[in-house]
Amino acid sequence: MNNTRFSTAIHILTLLADSGENWVNSDWIAGSINTNAAMVRKELSALQDAGFVIGRKGKEGGSRLNKPSSQISLADIYVAVKNTEVLGKKNLNTNPQCPVGKQINKELDQLYSDTDQLVINSLKGLTLENFAKKFR
Amino acid sequence: MNNTRFSTAIHILTLLADSGENWVNSDWIAGSINTNAAMVRKELSALQDAGFVIGRKGKEGGSRLNKPSSQISLADIYVAVKNTEVLGKKNLNTNPQCPVGKQINKELDQLYSDTDQLVINSLKGLTLENFAKKFR
DNA sequence: TCAATTGTAATAAAATTTGTTACAATATAA
DNA sequence: TTATATTGTAACAAATTTTATTACAATTGA
Which residues of chain B are modeled with pLDDT < 50? Predict the structure, then answer.
C-alpha cells in the first residue's frame, strides 16, 4: 500500500459519519482532505461499490452513509481499498531450475496471506463509529 | 509495500542460508530470482547495512551470511526493507480549518504504527533458519 | 599481470499514483 | 420549464516510485 487510498477512504467516511442524513458534496470533502473533487468522487465510487455509501446526482446532491457507522469496520474499509499484500509483491518468473526459485512463491503465498489476515482480523475490532466519534 | 523488496531479500537470504560458508556471487543469485545482478547487489548492500550479510570483492568474491540464520527473524528482514507503513501513506496538508482534517493524522499515526507493530511482532516468531529449511 | 567480482553511480524505462479537465446525465428549485 | 448544481466517469497529464540497464573504479585471488 504505497498510496493514500486507506487514508482517503477513512477520511471521507469519517466526514460522512459525522454528517448524519445530510448529503455531502465532493467539493466540500475535497476541501477537508485538500485534494481534487474528482479524486474524491473516484474514491466515493469505490466506497459505493463496497456498499458503505450512496450518492445522489443533481442539485442538492452528494453522498451519505448507506449503513450505520457501527456496522462498518476498519477491516471492511481496508479490504475495499487495498491493492497489494502487506508484505508487497512477489517475484514471478523465479527460476524453476533452482530449488529455491522453484518453490519460494508457494511458501510465500502462505506467509503473505497469513500476514494479510492478521491485519484484517485486528482491524475487524475497530468500527468507523468509534473512529469518527473522536472528531465530534 | 507495493514493491518486491521483501520477496527479493528473503530469496537472497534463503540462498545464502543454504550455502553455508561459500561465497555466493550476485550473478548466481540473480539467476535464481530471474533479475539483474546489479539489482541483487543493491539489495545485498541494504542487507549488509542491516548486518545480515558480508560481501567480499574480487575474484572468488561474493556474499555470505554474517550470523547464523537462526538469529535472523523475518521481522528483522521486513524492518530492513520496508519503506511504507502497512496501511499506506497519509494525506499530509489536510485542512486545519476542518475538525477532521485538523486532527485525523494524529489519530491515524496511532492506528498505523499499531498495525505495523502487529505485523512485526508476528514475524518475530519466524526465523530465516526455519524458512530456508524448507528448500533443502 | 590477468580475470572475476563487488559496490556504486548514473541513467533509462516501466509501472503506479495523483491530479486535471471535461462533459453527459440527472435532480432540484424557482 | 428553465437555470443551476451536482454526480459519475472517461481521457489525459504530471509526478512519483519501482525496476532495469550500463558502466566502471576498486579490489582480490590465482
Answer: none
Give the start-to-end residue ranges of the domains of chain A. 5-133
Q: What is the pLDDT of residue A86?
A: 98
Q: How far apart are CA A6 and CA B103, in angstroms?
A: 16
Candidates 1.25.40.10, 1.20.5.440, 3.40.47.10, 1.10.10.10; correct CATH number of A5-133? 1.10.10.10
CA/C1' separation A19–C13 (Å):
46
Alpha-carbon distances of B30 from A10, A100, B17, B135, rounded to whole Å:
41, 12, 16, 18
Can you say whether the dihedral through the CA atoms of A35, A23, A73, A126 is positive or negative?
Answer: positive
Contact A1 B1 (CB under 8 A): yes
Cα B10 from Cα B1, distance rounded (Å): 15
Query: Taking the CA of residue A87 as centre, how many other CA atoms within 13 Å lie in the half-sphere pointing to its CB?
Result: 28
pLDDT beneath 50: ranges in chain A: none
Q: Which nucleotide is nearest to A84 (CA to C1')?
A: C16
The pLDDT of residue A64 is 98
Per-residue model confidence (pLDDT) at position A47: 98
User: What is B28-66 written as a DSSP string?
Assistant: HHHHHHTS-HHHHHHHHHHHHHTTSEEEE-STT-EEEES
pLDDT given at position A78: 98
Task: Look at the block and give the residue holding cell 485542512.
Answer: B95
Q: What is the pLDDT of residue B57?
A: 97
Whole-angstrom distance, CA of residue A16 vs CA of residue A29: 9
